[in-house]
Amino acid sequence: MRSALGAFREQECGICLIEKECWTSSHLERPAVEGRKRIAEVMQRSELFLGLGDHYLLRIAKLPSCRLEYYNAGDAICRQGEYAKNLFVVNTGEILLTMDIPQGSGEGPTGAVVDKVLSGGIFGWSALVYPYILTLSCISVDQSSVLAVNGAELRQFMSEHPVVCREIMQGLLRVVALRLRDAYHLIVHQQVASAQSS
Question: How far apart are CA 124 and CA 121, in angstroms?
Answer without folding.
Answer: 11
